[in-house]
Amino acid sequence: MNKFHKLLLGGAALALSAVAAVNLPMAGAQEGSGKRPFTRGDRMFGGSGASAPLISIALKHKAELNLSNDQVANLEKVRNHYQTQVTPIQQQLATQEKEIASLTQQTPANLIQIKSKIQETEKLRSELRYLRIEALENGRSVLNAQQQDQLKTLVRAGHEHFRKSQGQPS
């Protein structure tokens, strides 16, 4: 029975380390550098989940969108505010993930402690998700309906161009 428990705990530790190893890069990819809060995955315009920063796209295409100086300043303010908020949370998340990885390497693994750390990381991810949605809404409120439609068209065109350049059908 003792061998069975060791095997079970070893398997659980291995599974948790694999999950942690996979989730850490995914968390980084989702959050990116934090400088570009809006992604198609945020569904600002029914997005696909790819990471194209919509605020940066809007700012890059400010002439086509006919953004006023105030709109540009407000979008930059939203982006900077988001960055200020998410940076410390991203750092906490990275620290928590390292702690989880370390805990899973212990024999026997303390599953109660691991579960607690996982729950803490999920709270951080939840906060990051909320902050992205908040930035999304704040950014959307800067654009008028016509500009939102134009941005949607730009994003779709960029997505189709990307897919074609990758050899994928649209």
Notes on the structure:
This protein is mostly helical. The protein has one domain (2-165). It is 75% helix and 0% strand. The chain contains 5 helices and no strands. It has helices spanning 2-31, 54-60, 69-105, 111-142, 145-165. The protein is elongated and about 60 Å long.
Question: Short summary of the structure?
Answer:
The protein has helices at residues 2-31, 54-60, 69-105, 111-142, 145-165.
Number of domains: 1
Strand portion, in percent? under 5%
Which sequence of SSEs, written as H and E, runs from N to C?
HHHHH
Number of helices: 5
Shape: elongated
Helix content: over 70%
Q: In angstroms, what separates the terminal alpha carbons?
A: 56 Å
Mean pLDDT: 76
Enumerate the spans where pLDDT stays under 50 for 5 or more consecutive residues.
12-52
Oligomer: single chain
**Major sheet: size, sense and barrel closure?**
none
Structural class by SSE content: mainly alpha
Rg is 20 Å
Number of strands: 0
